[in-house]
Each structure stands twice: as structure tokens, then as C-alpha cells.
Amino acid sequence: MASRKSNKKQEKGDKYSVLLPTYNERENLPLIVWLLVKYFGDSGYNYEIIVIDDGSPDGTLQVAEELQKIYGEDKILLRPRAKKLGLGTAYIHGIQHATGNFIFIMDADLSHHPKFIPEFIEKQREGGFDVVSGTRYSGNGGVYGWDLRRKLISRGANFVTQVLLRPGASDLTGSFRLYKKEVLESLIERCVSKGYVFQMEMIVRARQLGYSIGEVPISFVDRVYGESKLGGNEIVSFLKGLLTLFATT
Amino acid sequence: MTKLLEWLFGVSLIGVAWGLVTFDLLDLRLPPVYQEVAWPMPVYLLVAFGCYSLATVGYRVATFNDCEDAAKELQAQIQEAKEDLRKKGLKM
């Protein structure tokens, strides 16, 4: 029964490219790769992992090279860049050599757990969705390690976003998503914002262009290693970005 | 139409309707009760929306799922991963 199931997946010819933009993720990278290999391996889907390192000073790239030796160059692809250049361009850079017809984007710091990957894939197949977005806000999605302040800001910001943009997706700033490759390419072309707002703009433009969006509840576990950032500056730039989207889309 | 324009359009429509009723701009001679009710409507609606917003956000914060199990599972898997990677020759 098990082998018939994985043959079916192979026959479908679907391949999933996972884009991992990294900056100073020397500790987390081996762990996220191990988890990806585990869950893709267990579920039988065809995949590759593309590490886009932006010249991390902590040696992330060297660790990535070690991982390549362990797991193979067909499974771990390295597309490094000289310096920190931003998420949109990281995705473009990563997609250029991706051989999959589907693209996963996610954080490399273990806040997004690869165990949801089979759920994303099944959801996509169930509805033929162009985009599947991981949501922390609905179903049994949730977070770990957030204090009251962070939860309040997050829910408050999401509420304002829902009222102003009526986007048809419950979690706009999330960055754990599955895209059809051509959909991701067409969206990146049209998006101009940065940071959190970039992720929001992707969903908003997807709706504008008539793409279908599915959702999968995910758990977001706050940083195991490393520091997190959600200060006043971030909030201000979020609001600026939100108002720009409000006025231009 | 952008969301901003949609909002401006919607607000204008409501504004015109409100103005018409409250100030009797078209000489409709509506019963005075309409005017009495319409006049405070904008403030009333804003306050109602404010209360709704607070209640909704408050509810959502209170019911925000805390993924204790996910965190524990992750910790356990991190240990497992480190062991396995060490065996496979990764220098950590």
C-alpha cells in the first residue's frame, strides 16, 4: 500500500522547491534542513532545497556546503549572494534555478515547521489552488512564545488590515506559503514593498489577478536560537506599507 | 478601483444620504423622527464600530492558540536532529 502511494506521487511529476533565504542561520540551518528531509522523505514527494545566503558573517554558507555533502547536490542547492539584498530579490534569485513546478517559501529559523508541508501539498491538490497560505489566526493555527504585547499588536494589525484591505485570507503577514512557480514569478514582478508588507502585497495582488488562495493552519514557534525584532520602527513601517497598499490596490 | 476609492465612494454615499435626511436638502418633508434619528448616526456608528473593534481584537487575543505541544515537539526533534547530523559527520 505504501509503495503504491509513493509511486502515485512520483507519477504526478510534481516537484517542490523550498526557498530558504538565510542570514546568520548557522545554528538553525542544519536543523531546518534535517526536518525538511525528514518530512519530504516520509511523505514521498519530490523536492529540492535552495539555500539563498546573503553573505552571512557567521559561516552559514559553510554549514550549507557541509549539508550538501551529506544530502547531495541534487537535494541541496546553494545560491548565495554577496550581501543582504532583500526578500523579493532573494526569491527571484532562488527561483531562477529551481527545477520544481511548485515553490515553498518559509523562514529558516525554525518558526515554521516542515511537518505542515504534506498538509500544504494536500490542500493544494484538493482545491487546485494557485497559492496556499499558512495561517496562525484560524483553525488550530497558533503561536508559541509570544507575550501579550506581541499578540495584541499582531491581532490588532491583522484587524486593521482586514478592515482596510478585505483580502480574503486570514493571515497576511505570514511567510509560510506554497505557490505554483509561474504564479510566484508573476506576483514578484508586480510587488514593490519590503518586509512584512511584501508578504501582504503578494496576497493582495494574487486576489487582484484572480488567483485562488487556500489556507492551512500552522503553528508558529518563536525563535529557538537568535533574537526577534518587533519594535516601534517596524510598526510604523508596517502602517506606512498598509496605507500604501490601501491607496494603490 | 482601489480600496481607498471604494471607501471614499461608500462614505460619500452615506454622507449624502445622511445630509439629505438630516438637513432636509430635497425638501422631502420627512417626519421629524427621521431627522432626530439620522442626526447623531455618524457618531453613533463610529462608536459602535470602535466597540466592535475592541471586542473583536480582545476576543482574538484571548483565544489566540498557544502551541505548547508544538514547542515541545520541536525541542525533542532538535535533539534528534543534532544527534543524527553528528552521526552523519556534520561538525556543529
UniProtKB/TrEMBL annotation, chain B:
Keywords of the record: Coiled coil, Endoplasmic reticulum, Membrane, Transmembrane, Transmembrane helix
Q: Does the keyword Nucleotide-binding apply?
A: no
Per the database entry, which stretches of residues form a coiled coil?
Answer: 64-91
Indicate the secretion signal residues: none
Q: Which residues cross the membrane?
A: 43-62
Task: Name the GO cellular-component terms.
Answer: dolichol-phosphate-mannose synthase complex; endoplasmic reticulum membrane
Q: Does the keyword Coiled coil apply?
A: yes
Q: Do you know which Pfam families this protein is assigned to?
A: DPM3
Localisation per UniProt entry: Endoplasmic reticulum membrane
**What does the record say about its membrane topology?**
Multi-pass membrane protein
Q: Name one GO biological process term.
A: GPI anchor biosynthetic process
Q: Which InterPro entries match?
A: DPM3 (IPR013174)
| Main subcellular location of this protein, as a coarse class | endoplasmic reticulum
| Listed pathway(s) | Protein modification; protein glycosylation
- The protein's role, per its UniProt record: Stabilizer subunit of the dolichol-phosphate mannose (DPM) synthase complex; tethers catalytic subunit to the ER.
Q: How does it assemble?
A: Component of the dolichol-phosphate mannose (DPM) synthase complex.
What the record says about family reads: Belongs to the DPM3 family.
Q: Name the chain's protein.
A: Dolichol-phosphate mannosyltransferase subunit 3
State the organism named in the record.
Alosa alosa (allis shad)
